[in-house]
Design a protein that fits this description.
This is Putative sigma-54 modulation protein. It comes from Myroides indicus. InterPro entries: RHF-like, RHF/RaiA. The structure is a single chain. The protein has two helices and four strands. The protein is an alpha+beta fold. It has a single domain, classed as Double Stranded RNA Binding Domain. It has a four-stranded mixed beta sheet with strand order 1-2-3-4, with helices on one face. Strand 2 and strand 3 (52-60) form a beta hairpin. Helix 1 (14-27) runs parallel beside helix 2. It is elongated and about 45 Å long. 21% of the residues are buried.
Length: 99
């Protein structure tokens, strides 16, 4: 599974990249046909503490699974989004098996 990380208007440090790769590797355990994951990290221009937006697009054969989360840190957004992706992947896998 290939993980592409894009940060809008800032540079991502190595520690965050490693965290994202480790977290999203867990998603691949649920479904072995995952092609790639695109992760978009963006800082929102708001006065709120939760201003870090994380969007993950998971490509599987014949479909795209998209999760968007806004949290206090990118790590939290990736972790919560990873949980949501795991649920979506399991649901998608069951739907594909049913056909």
């Amino acid at each position: 599974m290939k993980v592409n990380i894009q940060a809008v208007n800032f540079n991502v440090d190595r520690k965050l990249v490693d965290f994202i790769n480790d977290r999203l590797a867990k998603v691949g355990k649920y479904y072995d046909k995952v092609i790639s994951v695109d992760v978009f990290l963006k800082l929102e221009n708001t006065n709120e503490k939760e201003n870090k937006s994380t969007e993950m697009k998971l490509l599987v054969p014949g479909d795209e699974l998209i999760v968007k989360k806004t949290c206090k840190t990118f790590e939290e957004g990736v972790d919560v989004g990873g949980d949501a992706l795991e649920r979506l992947v399991v649901k998608h896998k069951e739907k594909v098996k049913a056909h």
